[in-house]
């Protein structure tokens, strides 16, 4: 547990201390939100607003989510870690820091967009609740794929092509859920189950498959 | 042997589907494209399932044959997905007036194709064969996690134009016979194509 805590703190420091990383993520989030807010203001339909929430979040966070895994391999520090600790712990620590980061971006994007798109602020609580479930789900879905890409050595440029189809089912579910909240409709339990089931299966698969991939590479 | 057996099923089935099976009352003769569309859609799911299972076996046993099966099955599955999409678009343009209607099934199959195109791109971008095998096996396994959502869940939780006659058991027996004959025949043909593709792939390594 203390190893995991140490790794988690290290990952948090990497993500939040790197000015370029946090600057890229939050800077992009605020710029995109402001652009969308100024151009569209209160003229967007609930479904378009829901798409904007998640697309801006994904684009703002993807830089960090891909970088967390790939940088370790590119800098060669991944091998150092493998000599000292079980790499599954490293993987879990990275995933946890990704979840914290994407939640931080959501904390900025969701209120700004709600305000700038002229949506009722009373909806923010429920949208935030979906964000609390959706952000970890997105991080978990991207986590193992990012890890695989990092093992591909120098495949970082393929990140959007490889990762987007994998997260699309969760992204669609989250957009539909958010649209239901904005429209004031009953929230579909099925969509929550889809998000939960897929993110949980990604987490479990990541932990189960990693030793098999690690042992030969 | 498998090739002969697939011919035994496919040739009479094509004859039956095109010339004997009754005409559909609303759509007319054009409906006969479903006898090719359904087997293609079925085979893309089967091929992706085979790729998934072979990927698990490759990670656990590290035998090159499983890597070859996973890769070739994904490629063949992608081809069948493309054929199912083209035939589905022709059917859609004749019945709903437009080849593309943002129907959940149309969206699902395109996302599936994107996933397996990504798989092939990932494979082709890694030079080291062992690394390529392990990484792409991992990707194939997590990619398959999206298949149940895209094929079975999404079309049921969002409104769809797509007919569900087979799933709901309302397809007339005369049409079902043709569909089953084609599905069995094309499944056997898929096995033969996969066997040949794997053999060529292994010889080239």
Brief characterization of the structure:
The complex is a heterodimer of chains A (217) and B (205). With 217 residues, chain A is mainly α. Helices cover 86% and strands 0% of the residues of chain A.
Structural class call of chain B reads: mainly alpha
| Largest interface (CB < 8 Å) | A-B, 32 and 29 residues
Give the percentage of residues in beta strands of chain B: under 5%
pLDDT averaged residue by residue of chain A: 83
Runs of chain A in which pLDDT lies below 50 for 5 or more consecutive residues are none
Measured as a percent range, the helix fraction of chain B is over 70%
The main sheet of chain B comes to: none
Major beta sheet of chain A, specifics?
none
Compute the number of helices of chain B: 8
* Gyration radius of chain B, rounded: 18 Å
Instruction: Please state the average pLDDT score of chain B.
Output: 87
**Terminus-to-terminus distance of chain A:** 26 Å
Shape of chain B: globular
What fraction of residues of chain A sit in β-strands? under 5%
> Structural class of the helix and strand makeup of chain A?
mainly alpha
Number of helices of chain A: 8
The 3D shape of chain A can be described as: globular
Word description of this protein:
The complex is a heterodimer of chains A (217) and B (205). Chain A is mostly helical and 217 residues long. In chain A, 86% of the residues lie in helices and 0% in strands. Chain A has helices spanning 2-17, 19-40, 46-74, 77-84, 87-116, 124-151, 159-183, 189-216. In chain A, helix 3 packs antiparallel against helix 5. The model of chain A has no long low-confidence stretch (mean pLDDT 83). Chain B has eight helices and no strands. The longest helix of chain B is centred in the middle third of the chain and has 32 residues, at 64-95. Chain B is globular and about 55 Å long. Chain B starts with a helix and ends with a helix. The mean pLDDT of chain B is 87. Classes of the chains: A mainly alpha (217), B mainly alpha (205). The A-B interface holds A 144-145, 148-149, 151-153, 155, 158, 161-162, 164-166, 168-169, 172, 176, 188, 190-191, 194, 198, 201-202, 205-206, 209, 212-213, 216-217 and B 59-60, 62, 111, 114-115, 118, 121-122, 125-126, 130-131, 134-135, 137-139, 141-143, 145-146, 149-150, 153-154, 157-158.
